[in-house]
Amino acid sequence: MCFQKMSKPRIWVTRRLSDATLERAARDYEVVINYEDRPGTAEEIIAASAAFDGIIPCHSEHFSAEVVAQFSDRLKIVANHSVGVDHCDLPALKSRGIVVTNTPDVLSDATAELAMLLMLGAARHAVAGDRIVRSGAWDSWSPAFMVGKQVTGARLGIIGMGRVGRAFAAKARGFDMELHYFNRSPLAEELTQGAVYHDTVESLLGVSDFLSLHCPATPETNGLMSAERFALMPAGAVFVNTARGALVDEAALIGALDSGQLSAAGLDCFQVEPGGNPAFSRFDNIFMLPHIGSATGQTRDAMGFRALDNLDAFFAGKAPGDQL
Ligand code: DGY
Fold first, then answer.
1. Which of 103, 119, 181, 308 has its CB surrounded by the most CB atoms within 10 Å?
2. Domain D-isomer specific 2-hydroxyacid dehydrogenase NAD-binding: where (predicted)?
């Protein structure tokens, strides 16, 4: 059945997506856009399940089992504007016959670029350096001043060698880094191009002068970086997270920075978002950004279009390319 020929499906866009995305959505669907651009509440999501055929949410809207249990029958598809879907209880949505899609691939380079920025910035005291110049406190120079950790030629550990992990590896090769990775299973050589596979996280940590997380947040990866695991890293290592805050025991991260086990960290993700962890603010050696890994204009358009491609396929009676 071709839904679109009968009437335009009704779609709720929960956040202010890119102009190009909203224009295309308005052309092909009857859309309601949340121009207030704040996270949709549980009540709004439940109400939307009765009023819309599809929703384009971001990771800021939570489709928990409790919320989904209160859904009406109208909603057919949740076409996420994100690659991560830890905000969705997939079994609960699927058990209601609701199709769920995400936006892989299109944000890999933008996220990998941000991981590179965090790695370099953390290693070279970007936060402290900026603060000193900005505050007018820069009154001397010495060979011992702001000595950082060199990235070129260093060993880089990557946890999760999916699309973003591989995009980050490609950029790290430009810095002649020695690449190591942990993944659920080893990948073909043409994908990893000489990166050394480790069959345990522990083995990877032992060789990671720099470590970057690129795996999804699942019950299995919750708290992946614990005090025990930080302790396995070489002294003075640098830790980077552009994946999800849930992967990190933040108290353990603080302990590792306090002890010097880690010399610095670069974080784009936090257990509590928005807001982050106020306890991190006392560290000049944490370079923090507010979950903007995929935030480039080009990528925002591509994410929006990918979500719309998935909706288009679904309402044309086809399987969406990114159905989970
Ligand atoms: C994603 O796509 O998962 C990013 O974290 C932004 O939502």
1. 119
2. 117-293
